[in-house]
């Protein structure tokens, strides 16, 4: 059996070859430019004249022979047909690494940076290619599915224990989908492995992306060991398949564990951006001795529920998520907060209070979770406060949450 050392050596050799091929357009002191100026000018003119994404995609083989500046322009032009906004320079750099250099990449960037764009774009730009996206939760997979569906030329699918079937796996193998969203357990399962090792799938697979990559270390050593076994998936795919991992929270120890668990090569690319959030501020308050279990420290989140005249103003309660460490403690805090809200004004009905303050945790019934989540996402949501475990905080896209409280 080929050992891990051999596997890494082979991967490094392939990566070096791909990188040399991608950068052969650089100036050589003796030979001068590999690509004359005229072909580059002609390419840029063709790119500028391209009116749609398929025309731009047809220029990809030529772009692979161009210099980095031309390749960057190719990416920017293609992305204008995919997204209604201009991408950040580091996003474009990351996509360039994955499409043209074909080497491993880890991106560390703040929440709201747009890390998802980097894993979405390659298979929307490169025709007949497939990206496997490792997702931590089905809810995140559903959100990614919706976003990727809005991209031209993208055909995503979500594989879960509820959706997996022989028909779906056959369609994946045949290349019907550009983006395969799947959890780590199914990604290393025998059924998915059979798909990954078929020649027709291997010809198309262009990228494997690990979303919320810090969970490889945090969850892989605890209740989801499949995260720590993603190298099994890697061993079943072509050696030159680049892997991409992204997170906002990768300290040195977590980064080291991630590299080992996924068998990242030593020459991988690392893009680290500032994770400072100037629009976010922290307030730290001490909880009075022996008052932790009474949850009195949370009373302040109800301050805006009634105005000075005693009128009900639930809409003035900022959208708030309170993270509590366990379902048990949520179930103790929930009735307490609802009682306090009723005491604020007897005009609050029991039904209104149950709506204004809701709960969300992993083993809540899927139907109930969806109802709570969909309502909370609305700009004018009737739900103003959610008590939750960390299951609501992973990759969730609710832009107007104003206040987050963490109970320690």
Secondary structure blueprint with pairings:
Layout: H1 4-22, H2 37-49, H3 53-58, H4 60-63, H5 68-80, H6 89-101, E1 105-108, H7 115-125, E2 130-134, H8 138-149, E3 156-159, H9 166-173, E4 179-182, H10 184-187, H11 190-196, H12 199-204, E5 205-210, H13 215-218, H14 230-235, E6 243-247, H15 252-262, E7 269-272, E8 320-323, H16 327-344, H17 350-356, E9 357-360, H18 366-377, E10 385-388, E11 403-406
Parallel strand pairs: 1-6, 1-7, 2-4, 2-5, 3-4, 5-6, 8-10, 8-11, 9-10
Helix pairs in contact: 2-5, 5-6, 6-7, 9-11
Question: How is this structure best described in words?
Answer:
Helix 9 links the parallel strand 3 and strand 4. This protein is α/β, with parallel strands linked by helices. The two termini are 48 Å apart. The protein folds into three domains: 67 residues, no CATH class; 190 residues, P-loop containing nucleotide triphosphate hydrolases (Rossmann fold), CATH 3.40.50; 115 residues, P-loop containing nucleotide triphosphate hydrolases (Rossmann fold, 3-Layer(aba) Sandwich). A seven-stranded parallel beta sheet has the order 3-4-2-5-6-1-7. It is built from 18 helices and eleven strands. Helix content is 43%, strand content 12%.
């Amino acid at each position: 059996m080929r050992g891990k050392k051999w596997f890494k050596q082979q991967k490094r050799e392939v990566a070096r070859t791909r990188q040399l091929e991608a950068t052969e357009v650089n100036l050589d002191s003796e030979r001068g430019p590999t690509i004359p100026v005229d072909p580059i000018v002609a390419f840029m003119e063709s790119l500028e004249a391209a009116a749609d994404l398929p025309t731009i995609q047809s220029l990809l083989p030529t772009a692979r022979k161009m210099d980095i500046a031309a390749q960057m322009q190719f990416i920017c032009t293609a992305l204008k047909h995919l997204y209604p906004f201009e991408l950040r320079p580091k996003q474009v750099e990351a996509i360039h690494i994955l499409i043209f250099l074909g080497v491993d990449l880890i991106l560390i960037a703040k929440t709201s940076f747009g890390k998802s764009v980097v894993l979405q774009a390659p298979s929307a730009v490169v025709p007949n290619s497939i990206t496997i996206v490792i997702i931590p939760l089905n809810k995140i997979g559903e959100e990614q599915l919706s976003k990727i569906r809005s991209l031209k030329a993208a055909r995503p699918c979500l594989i879960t224990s509820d959706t997996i079937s022989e028909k779906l796996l056959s369609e994946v193998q045949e290349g019907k989908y550009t983006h395969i969203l799947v959890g780590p357990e199914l990604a290393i399962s025998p059924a998915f492995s059979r798909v990954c090792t078929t020649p027709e799938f291997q010809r198309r697979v262009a990228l494997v992306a690990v979303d919320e990559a810090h969970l490889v270390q945090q969850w892989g050593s605890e209740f989801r060991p499949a995260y720590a076994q993603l190298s099994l998936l890697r061993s079943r795919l072509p050696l030159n398949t680049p892997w991409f991992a992204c997170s906002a929270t990768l300290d040195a120890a977590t980064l080291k564990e991630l590299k080992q668990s996924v068998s990242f090569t030593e020459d991988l690319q690392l893009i680290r951006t500032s994770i400072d959030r100037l629009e976010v501020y922290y307030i730290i308050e001490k909880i009075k001795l022996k008052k932790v279990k009474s949850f009195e420290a949370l009373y302040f989140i109800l301050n805006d529920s009634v105005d000075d005249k005693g009128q009900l103003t639930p809409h003035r309660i900022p959208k708030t998520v309170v993270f509590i460490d366990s379902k048990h403690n949520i179930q103790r805090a929930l009735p307490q907060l609802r009682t306090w809200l009723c005491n604020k004004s007897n005009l609050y009905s029991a039904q209104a209070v149950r709506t204004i303050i809701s709960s969300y945790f992993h083993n809540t019934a899927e139907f109930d979770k969806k109802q709570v989540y969909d309502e909370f996402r609305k700009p004018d949501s009737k739900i103003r406060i959610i008590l939750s475990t960390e299951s609501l905080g992973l990759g969730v896209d609710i832009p107007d949450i104003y206040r987050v409280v963490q109970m320690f």
